[in-house]
Design goal:
The protein has 9 helices and 2 strands. The protein has helices at residues 20-36, 40-56, 61-85, 89-94, 111-137, 140-149, 154-183, 194-225, 244-267; strands spanning 99-104, 107-110. Strands 1-2 form a two-stranded antiparallel ribbon. Strand 1 and strand 2 form a beta hairpin. Helix 1 (20-36) runs antiparallel to helix 5 (111-137). The protein is flat, with a radius of gyration of 23 Å.
Length: 277
């Protein structure tokens, strides 16, 4: 597999040149701004900004295709479940009711519900590019060193780095086991019945779990043999100092965050934008 899910993509772009700490701060600020606001105008602006940054990062669609499919399925499922359990949630939030069509029983299609669920859908969708940018443009070791420089214990920082490195390793291991099992006649194609595909998938997951446990033990022993955790401090091979670009990125993120709060407080007088007033 040429492109690995969650793997660091080494490209020389303005986003890659930013410190890992800068990208974490920007990610948290922008994510909180989107999650706090239910103003579709603000959410769309942040979404356009995040897709622009995604383009600047030179992340190819082939790298994130699988992730986009899974996220898309989750968003669609979330939208359907939200309507099934709360078909009048939008009516309760906006205080008006404009019915388009009555479906069955307590289920009716209203403009308020459509607007609410569209806003909610875009809210979640706008966060996805931010997470992709953070994962695929951040060197795990450099990110760990950045965390350590701001006061995070180096053991915790190193654990974060190992976690980020572990995702592509797991994916490669899964692909290797899957190909080995298919070479032995295990059918995982769409031609097989759903029951058989599920059963065959378990035959991949079980050895994946055992190989994962072996890998964890191997890494733990290697760290112990090298005296990891013996000293109170440590040096880092990958370390990046904050520069002008980092401060600009953090400044832009803070402005977007503050702007979102101000719009909710002074313009909407609420977290929700109500076009039905």
């Amino acid at each position: 597999m040429k492109n690995n899910l969650f793997s660091y993509n080494l490209v020389d772009t303005p986003i890659h040149r930013l410190s890992g700490l800068t990208k974490l701060i920007a990610f948290l600020l922008l994510t909180f701004a989107v999650m706090f606001s239910y103003d579709i105008r603000v959410i769309i602006c942040v979404m356009i900004f995040s897709f622009y940054i995604l383009k600047v990062s030179q992340i190819k669609f082939s790298q994130i295709k699988l992730m986009v499919i899974y996220v898309g399925l989750f968003l669609i499922t979330n939208t359907i479940i939200t309507y099934l359990f709360s078909p009048e949630e939008g009516v309760g939030i906006y205080g008006t009711r404009h019915e388009i069509v009555h479906l069955i029983g307590r289920y009716s299609l209203t403009m308020e519900q459509i607007f609410y669920q569209t806003t909610k859908f875009l809210k979640y969708a706008s966060v996805i590019p931010l997470g992709i940018i953070f994962l695929l443009t951040t060197n795990p070791s450099e990110f760990a060193s950045s965390l350590n420089r701001v006061g995070v214990n180096y053991k915790a920082a190193y654990a974060v780095a190992l976690t980020l490195r572990y995702f592509p390793d797991i994916q490669r291991e899964y692909v290797d086991i899957s190909l080995a099992q298919q070479a032995r006649g295990l059918d995982l194609s769409s031609k097989a019945k759903l029951k058989d595909r599920f059963k065959n998938a378990l035959l991949i997951i079980v050895p994946l779990i055992f190989s994962t446990m072996d890998r964890i033990e191997l890494i733990s022993n290697a760290m112990d043999l090298r005296g990891f955790g013996k000293c109170k401090t440590r040096t880092w091979y990958n370390s990046k100092s904050m520069n002008k670009g980092d401060f600009i990125a953090i400044g832009i993120s803070i402005l977007i965050f503050i702007g979102t709060i101000l719009v909710s407080i002074f313009i909407n007088k609420s977290r929700f934008y109500n076009p039905f007033i």
